[in-house]
Write a structure and sequence with these properties.
This protein has 410 residues and is mostly helical. It has a single domain, classed as Proton glutamate symport protein (Orthogonal Bundle), CATH 1.10.3860.10. The chain is 71% helix and 0% strand.
Length: 410
């Protein structure tokens, strides 16, 4: 059975259970929240070793074949360009549709802890390098850095280079196969995550006041991921059929949309990227985790659109173009501080935007809390679709993919 069908069945079953068989305020709902958390942990269980050994082999192979500079240059360009494009499209859509202002209801809540450059450096360089593989599952950046450094130095000693390459290759293949097992069975986990997500949505209050904004953001997300990205995949991916790319993104897109967790969909994206798009591990091993961490187009776009709505609601007047541009630029720039935030990136960005904007808006973003779960899901979906587009375009431009037969797609 195709992976996306398994995921869709799990999602559908979870939706039915949450709507018809579980009361969101009953004691039984807590069980589903616990099962959802367990499923997310299982989904990210192998991500760190998969990323470490994948990056190690990827960097080593690219250096051996003299493709490293051109590949990573293109990767950086795309990581900058796609979030910028998404944020600009989001701002234009919001200015065009002009949804109504939001109710100013500030709920009691703890302000989000915001990352900075020093905290990110602390993540990259823990006290013990081996703790990279045993630390929190969100610590992908440290795994990528250690894997890249190891890959670059692995051939320094020619006496042991062959042995080290064989060991790294074997471990990379081993964790990819183990990840495949989790992906194939994760439809069950997606059922629990769907139930918990729907129960959270059912507990949301005053959602009708946020519906116009949510609809505009959801529509813009659809335009970006189902319109602009397929065009870019076709134009820059050497005229490959974008419908096949969209097909390969169904499963990771569903996982991100339901869970609101970018890293959770990483294992699925690695699996479908290899079997459906044919991305070789020279690209997939390092481009995928880097794109998941830094190409946060969804978080930047949703945060910019939501914060513009906050400013409009508090001012009661139309914002000037200078204010809109300021929010767009800040959202785009601050999104690169989210490599260790797999879920909740929108709330972190909104907190940083509010602090950076000052003028008494430090806690203004809290009026968005009733709609936060929906905004987080939309942002995670766009983030994962962005990572998939980046990975495919890099593989296509560098001719580092082996296009599979459509009958062999998973």
């Amino acid at each position: 059975m195709k992976i996306w069908i398994r995921y869709l069945l799990g999602l559908t079953a979870g939706l039915i259970i949450a709507v018809f068989f579980v009361d969101p305020v009953s004691a039984g709902s807590e069980v589903w929240y616990d099962l959802s958390e367990l499923a997310i942990r299982v989904g990210r269980y192998l991500l760190l070793p998969l990323v470490f050994f994948g990056t190690l082999v990827s960097v080593h192979d690219l250096r051996e074949h003299k493709h490293a500079l051109s590949t990573y240059t293109l990767l950086i360009v795309l990581i900058v360009a796609l979030p910028a494009l998404a944020v600009i499209v989001g701002a234009i859509a919001l200015l065009f549709f002009q949804p109504g202002v939001l109710p100013i209801i500030l709920e009691d809540a703890v302000l989000q802890e915001t990352p900075d450059i020093l905290s990110i450096l602390g993540v990259i360089f823990p006290d013990n390098a081996l703790s990279v593989l045993t630390g929190p599952g969100r610590n992908l950046l440290a795994a990528v850095i250690l894997g890249a450094v190891t890959g670059m130095t692995m051939s320094a000693d020619k006496r042991f280079a062959g042995l080290l390459e064989d060991i790294a290759d074997a471990l990379c293949r081993l964790f990819f196969r183990l990840n495949a097992v989790i992906v194939q069975l994760f439809g069950i986990g997606l059922l629990a995550i769907t139930v918990a997500t729907v129960l959270r949505f059912r507990n949301l209050g005053n959602l009708e006041f946020y519906a116009p904004m949510i609809l505009v953001i959801a529509f813009t997300a659809g335009v970006v991921t189902l319109g602009l990205y397929p065009l870019l995949v076709w134009g820059f991916g050497r005229k490959w059929n974008p419908l096949l790319w969209m097909y390969s993104m169904i499963a990771p897109g569903l996982a991100a949309l339901v869970s609101g967790d970018v890293f959770l969909a990483g294992g699925t994206l690695a699996y479908t990227g290899r079997h459906n798009i044919g991305v070789r591990r020279e690209v997939g091993g390092s481009a995928l985790p880097i794109a998941l961490m830094f190409a946060r187009a969804g978080s930047a776009m949703v945060s910019a659109m939501a914060f513009i709505m906050v400013l409009r609601s508090f001012s009661g007047l139309e914002l000037g173009m200078a204010s809109v541009i300021r929010v767009v630029v800040m959202s785009f720039g601050l999104s690169f501080l989210l490599p260790a935030v797999p879920a909740g990136g929108v709330l972190v960005l909104l907190s940083m935007l509010a602090s950076g904007y000052s003028q008494g808006f430090e806690d203004a973003y809290l009026i968005l809390r009733p709609a936060a779960p929906i905004l987080l899901s939309i942002a995670a979906y766009v983030d994962v679709m962005t990572a998939g587009a980046v990975m495919h375009i890099v593989a296509g431009r560098r001719k580092l993919r082996d296009l599979p037969d459509t009958h062999d797609m998973v």
